[in-house]
Amino acid sequence: MSMTHYMQLLAENQPWNLLLFMAIPVILAETVAITELAVLFGNETTGPVRFLNRWAGILVGLYFAVVFVYLTATAAIPLTLSNGWRGPIDVIAVGFYLFGIVPLGGIALLELRVYGKGWPHRRWLGVHAALVGLFLITAHVAMIAGMLDPALAGGGGAATHQGHTM
């Protein structure tokens, strides 16, 4: 059985890779998701829950932007250039993980008022909630694909390249 680059990254350099690439972004994103419910259903525009929702959204977006740039430069581009992918499951796992920058970056940009500043509050909340939902879908597809054996879809074994293993 072989593993995707996604799982290999999380398994190596224990516990640091797991903390840096999974625990920190997921804990922050789940904090946004959980507090989002209180914001939406409690119509909270101020208070400690909204404060936590806002700052977790900003932090996760900025943090994941750094992760995205780092893994794109040290893993995704080198894997592509060296033809090191382990098949379609591997590409789906890593691709969906990296795609997390879209919803997480979007949440941070909303919270920082880079866009959506002049929108009616209900529209702003709707876009914010949609980005939270998109992240949840994206992260779960990455995790499920990441746990599969790439050989199930004709992928190769555990060949690695120079640099990061993702």
Topology:
Layout: H1 5-11, H2 16-42, H3 48-81, H4 88-99, H5 101-111, H6 121-147
Summed up, what is this model?
The chain has 166 residues and is mostly helical. The protein contains six helices and no strands.
Count of discrete domains: 1
Low-confidence stretches: 159-163
Helix/strand/pairing category: mainly alpha
- State the distance separating the first and last CA atoms: 17 Å
DSSP summary: helix tally: 6
Please, what is the average pLDDT?
Answer: 92
Morphology: elongated
Quaternary class: single chain
**Radius of gyration (Å):** 17 Å
Strand content: under 5%
The portion of residues assigned to helices is over 70%
Order of helices and strands: HHHHHH
What's the main sheet like?
none
Structure characterization notes:
There is one protein chain. By secondary structure, the chain is an all-alpha fold. The protein has one domain. 71% of the residues lie in helices and 0% in strands. The protein has 6 helices and no strands. It has helices at residues 5-11, 16-42, 48-81, 88-99, 101-111, 121-147. Helix 2 (16-42) packs across helix 3 and helix 5 runs antiparallel to helix 6 (121-147). The protein is elongated and about 50 Å long. The two termini are 17 Å apart. The model is unreliable at 159-163 (pLDDT under 50).
